[in-house]
Specification:
Rossmann fold; about 375 residues; 14 helices; 2 domains; Glyco_trans_4-like_N; alpha/beta; Glycosyltransferase family 1 protein
């Protein structure tokens, strides 16, 4: 099959959209499919045997590491030259709209993957454009032949906006990389003295992740806080959490060691459509504390695979963590339950499932022109 992936983000960016596309390309090319990637900004022009076409972009103020794709005739020319059987839109917002128009002009069916709650992020920044963004994203998905959503919350969100033909498509996890066997006593010793419960956050340090809520954990007795990641909020957090360990961004084996060396993983953002770091913590054999909102609602079964806290209640994160700090048996039970829950979620299986969605739309694109 010939698959053209038009994505809002790709290497060298490190985020959920870019990571998912990378795993999709890895599996598709490894199983004999031909892939073209169209992505914004500078970066590699080839990956895993697939050509990567780069288009014009604009750096977003306050989020300069995320280039926003601009309308560019290169998209249409690239798709026309490649002659795909199906066009895959990865989290369509700006460049995805251009890819959708090109696919429609070429009469190629479109599978759109909803992955980023951009309107939710806008709300976190106090921007008044959240409703306009919601309508725009819903319009793009209504015009696709099939939309794949990562969670029940995302399904409900798009269904309420009239998006038809929704299908659940979760993310995989690298089970070779994230594993309890990577727990590193020496790394833990470099973080804190023996006897402390190590609680960690892993992810971008930005306002949309609501990382300032980590201050709730500043003085929980018996806790040492580790913050893995980077972003514009890092300086603010370091100033107010002087006892915490800030590692900066980690990747590959270093990230796997950090995950597995935690006792409790916490997440703070409530606008997550899926929350990949929850799965990575579970695969690493770590108890999870996550918001009772968005994607984590599907990933965490309270008391069995983790703990959920009420995002509307001040100090709820602190209370959930404090309860686990004094209950090592509960931590062990949740860690084991989480590991079992993700044991079958390999990227190979998830991408093979995606191929079924491609095949389903190959009968021919619809003529959706919904507003």
């Amino acid at each position: 099959m010939r698959v053209a992936i038009v994505t809002e983000s790709f290497l060298p960016q490190v985020n959920g959209v870019a990571g998912t596309v990378r795993h999709v390309v890895d599996r598709l090319t490894a199983t004999g499919h031909q892939v073209l990637v169209v992505a914004p900004g500078a970066g590699p022009t080839a990956y895993a045997g697939a050509e990567v076409v780069r288009v014009r972009s604009l750096a977003l103020p306050g989020y300069r590491s995320f280039p926003l794709g601009l309308p560019d005739p290169v998209v249409h020319r690239a798709l026309d030259r490649f002659r795909p059987d199906v066009v895959h839109l990865a989290s369509p917002i700006a460049l995805g709209a251009v890819g959708l128009r090109a696919a429609r002009h070429l009469a190629v069916p479109v599978v759109a993957v909803y992955q980023t709650d951009v309107a939710g992020f806008a709300r976190q920044y106090g921007l008044p454009a959240d409703r306009l963004i919601d309508r725009w994203v819903a319009r793009l998905h209504r015009r696709a032949d099939r939309t794949l959503v990562p969670s029940s919350a995302s399904w409900d969100q798009l269904a309420a906006q009239g998006v038809p033909d929704l299908h659940l498509w979760r993310r995989g996890v690298d089970l070779d990389l994230f594993d309890p066997g990577h727990r590193d006593p020496a790394l833990r010793a470099s973080w804190t003295e023996p006897g402390h419960v190590v609680v960690g956050y892993v992810g971008r340090l930005a306002q949309e992740k609501q990382v300032r809520r980590l201050l709730e954990l500043a003085d929980v007795p018996g806790v040492h806080l580790v913050v893995v990641g980077d972003g514009p909020e890092r300086g603010w957090l370091q100033e107010r959490l002087p006892a915490a360990t800030f590692t900066g961004m980690l990747r590959g084996p270093a990230l796997a060691r950090a995950f597995a060396s935690l006792d409790v993983f916490v997440h703070t953002g409530e606008a997550e459509t899926f929350c990949q770091t929850v799965q990575e913590a579970q695969a690493s054999g770590v108890a999870v504390v996550a918001p009772a909102a968005g994607g984590p609602l599907d990933l965490v079964s309270p008391g069995r695979t983790g703990s959920l806290y009420d995002v509307t209640q001040p100090q709820a994160l602190r209370g959930a963590v404090a309860a686990l700090v004094t209950d090592p048996l509960a931590r062990a039970r949740m860690a084991r339950g989480g590991q079992l829950a993700v044991a079958g979620r390999s990227w190979a299986g998830v991408v093979d499932e995606l191929l079924g969605h491609y095949t389903a739309v190959l009968g021919g694109p619809s003529e959706r022109l919904a507003a």
